[in-house]
């Protein structure tokens, strides 16, 4: 790891070990599929192909997520901004009110169901 990287940047950067392990996994499954196909084991080859495809898709998505997270990582000045704190409080208050409205709606629906299902005497 480079000494000029901050601790947050070092934590977001995947280790070389896992990147190497992913490449080895891809290569083993590709070669295993070819070998199984050469031996005439179609199901075995298909399993290697499925594992190769799943690993490749996972690798591509993880690289994209890593790039996206490093592009949009907030700086410490953005987090400490009082406007951001006020916006966070506003969003929290709106979420609380929305939850209260949802609870009231569920209670009202429960009462309607109980009233409708109650036998008339």
3D structure, described in words:
This protein is mostly helical and 121 residues long. The chain folds into 2 domains: 1-73; 77-121. It is 82% helix and 0% strand. It is built from 5 helices and no strands. It has helices at 7-12, 16-38, 42-71, 76-79, 82-117. Helix 2 (16-38) packs antiparallel against helix 3 (42-71). It is flat, with a radius of gyration of 27 Å. The termini are far apart.
Q: Can I get a quick summary?
A:
It is built from five helices and no strands. With 121 residues, the chain is mostly helical.
Features:
about 120 residues; mainly alpha; 2 domains; 5 helices; about 80% helix
Topology at a glance:
Blueprint: H1 7-12, H2 16-38, H3 42-71, H4 76-79, H5 82-117
Helix pairs in contact: 2-3
Shape: flat
Q: Distance between the terminal alpha carbons, to the nearest Å?
A: 79 Å
Round the mean pLDDT to the nearest integer and report it: 81
The major beta sheet can be summarized as: none
Q: Kindly name the structural category.
A: mainly alpha
The amount of beta strand, in percent, is: under 5%
Number of domains: 2
Rg (CA only) = 27 Å
Helix content: over 70%
H and E order = HHHHH
């Amino acid at each position: 790891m480079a000494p000029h990287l901050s601790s947050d940047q070092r934590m977001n950067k995947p280790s070389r070990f896992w990147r190497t392990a992913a490449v080895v996994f891809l290569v083993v499954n590709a070669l295993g599929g070819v070998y199984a196909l050469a031996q005439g084991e179609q199901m075995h080859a298909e399993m290697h192909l499925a594992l190769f495809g799943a690993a490749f898709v996972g690798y591509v998505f993880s690289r994209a997520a890593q790039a996206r997270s490093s592009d949009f990582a907030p700086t410490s000045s953005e987090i400490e901004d009082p406007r951001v704190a006020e916006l966070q409080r506003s969003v929290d208050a709106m979420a609380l009110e929305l939850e209260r409205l949802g609870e009231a709606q569920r209670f009202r629906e429960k009462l309607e169901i109980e009233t409708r299902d109650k036998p008339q005497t």
